[in-house]
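@channel sequence for tomorrow's demo:
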Amino acid sequence: MFVQLRKISVTEGNGEQVVKQFSGKSIIERQEGFINLTVMVKKVRRGDEEIIIMIRWESEEYWKQWEKSEAHIANHKANLGKPKPEYIVSSEGGLYEVKAVKKGVK
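C-alpha coordinates (generated this afternoon):
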Protein backbone atom coordinates (compact mmCIF):
# COMPACT_ATOMS: atom_id res chain seq x y z
CA MET A 1 0.00 0.00 0.00
CA PHE A 2 1.09 3.56 -0.72
CA VAL A 3 -0.08 6.71 1.10
CA GLN A 4 -0.03 10.35 0.13
CA LEU A 5 -0.40 12.81 3.03
CA ARG A 6 -1.02 16.53 2.81
CA LYS A 7 -1.11 18.85 5.83
CA ILE A 8 -2.88 22.15 5.27
CA SER A 9 -2.92 24.91 7.88
CA VAL A 10 -5.65 27.53 7.55
CA THR A 11 -6.71 30.58 9.49
CA GLU A 12 -9.21 30.14 12.28
CA GLY A 13 -12.74 29.42 11.06
CA ASN A 14 -11.75 28.29 7.55
CA GLY A 15 -11.07 24.58 8.01
CA GLU A 16 -14.51 23.60 6.76
CA GLN A 17 -13.74 25.11 3.33
CA VAL A 18 -10.84 22.67 2.90
CA VAL A 19 -12.92 19.79 4.25
CA LYS A 20 -15.64 20.51 1.66
CA GLN A 21 -13.08 20.78 -1.15
CA PHE A 22 -11.70 17.30 -0.47
CA SER A 23 -14.91 15.59 0.70
CA GLY A 24 -17.04 16.03 -2.41
CA LYS A 25 -17.25 13.64 -5.32
CA SER A 26 -14.32 13.80 -7.72
CA ILE A 27 -12.62 11.88 -10.47
CA ILE A 28 -10.14 10.25 -8.10
CA GLU A 29 -12.78 7.76 -6.93
CA ARG A 30 -12.80 6.19 -10.39
CA GLN A 31 -9.02 5.93 -10.60
CA GLU A 32 -7.67 2.40 -10.72
CA GLY A 33 -5.84 1.46 -7.53
CA PHE A 34 -7.49 4.16 -5.42
CA ILE A 35 -8.48 2.81 -1.99
CA ASN A 36 -9.82 5.83 -0.13
CA LEU A 37 -9.36 9.44 0.84
CA THR A 38 -9.61 10.50 4.49
CA VAL A 39 -9.97 14.09 5.71
CA MET A 40 -8.97 14.72 9.34
CA VAL A 41 -9.19 17.95 11.31
CA LYS A 42 -6.95 18.56 14.31
CA LYS A 43 -8.85 19.57 17.43
CA VAL A 44 -7.91 23.14 18.35
CA ARG A 45 -9.57 25.64 20.68
CA ARG A 46 -8.31 28.77 18.98
CA GLY A 47 -5.99 29.85 16.22
CA ASP A 48 -4.96 28.25 12.95
CA GLU A 49 -6.66 24.99 12.04
CA GLU A 50 -4.86 21.94 10.67
CA ILE A 51 -6.35 19.54 8.14
CA ILE A 52 -4.70 16.28 7.10
CA ILE A 53 -5.65 14.67 3.81
CA MET A 54 -4.67 10.99 3.54
CA ILE A 55 -5.03 9.25 0.19
CA ARG A 56 -4.42 5.51 0.14
CA TRP A 57 -3.42 3.63 -3.02
CA GLU A 58 -2.95 -0.08 -3.66
CA SER A 59 0.62 0.66 -4.80
CA GLU A 60 3.01 3.43 -5.75
CA GLU A 61 2.50 2.49 -9.39
CA TYR A 62 -1.24 3.27 -9.16
CA TRP A 63 -0.43 6.61 -7.54
CA LYS A 64 2.01 7.39 -10.38
CA GLN A 65 -0.69 6.53 -12.93
CA TRP A 66 -2.99 9.03 -11.20
CA GLU A 67 -0.33 11.74 -11.13
CA LYS A 68 0.27 11.28 -14.87
CA SER A 69 -3.41 10.95 -15.81
CA GLU A 70 -4.99 13.50 -18.14
CA ALA A 71 -7.75 14.23 -15.61
CA HIS A 72 -5.32 14.99 -12.79
CA ILE A 73 -3.07 17.13 -14.95
CA ALA A 74 -6.03 19.04 -16.41
CA ASN A 75 -7.29 19.83 -12.91
CA HIS A 76 -3.93 21.28 -11.91
CA LYS A 77 -3.58 23.22 -15.17
CA ALA A 78 -6.98 24.80 -14.54
CA ASN A 79 -5.60 26.28 -11.32
CA LEU A 80 -2.26 27.47 -12.72
CA GLY A 81 -1.65 31.12 -12.06
CA LYS A 82 -4.50 31.41 -9.59
CA PRO A 83 -3.46 32.71 -6.19
CA LYS A 84 -3.96 30.36 -3.27
CA PRO A 85 -6.87 31.30 -1.03
CA GLU A 86 -5.92 33.89 1.58
CA TYR A 87 -7.02 31.60 4.41
CA ILE A 88 -4.31 29.00 3.61
CA VAL A 89 -1.35 29.55 5.91
CA SER A 90 0.79 26.63 4.68
CA SER A 91 0.62 23.32 2.87
CA GLU A 92 3.07 20.45 2.85
CA GLY A 93 2.96 16.86 1.76
CA GLY A 94 4.71 13.54 1.82
CA LEU A 95 4.62 10.12 0.20
CA TYR A 96 4.85 6.93 2.24
CA GLU A 97 5.16 3.23 1.57
CA VAL A 98 3.12 1.30 4.11
CA LYS A 99 5.25 -1.38 5.77
CA ALA A 100 2.87 -2.73 8.41
CA VAL A 101 -0.83 -2.53 9.30
CA LYS A 102 -2.47 -3.86 12.46
CA LYS A 103 -6.14 -4.73 12.55
CA GLY A 104 -8.39 -5.13 15.56
CA VAL A 105 -9.50 -8.52 16.75
CA LYS A 106 -13.26 -9.09 16.79
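heads up for whoever presents: The first strand starts at residue 2 and ends at 10.
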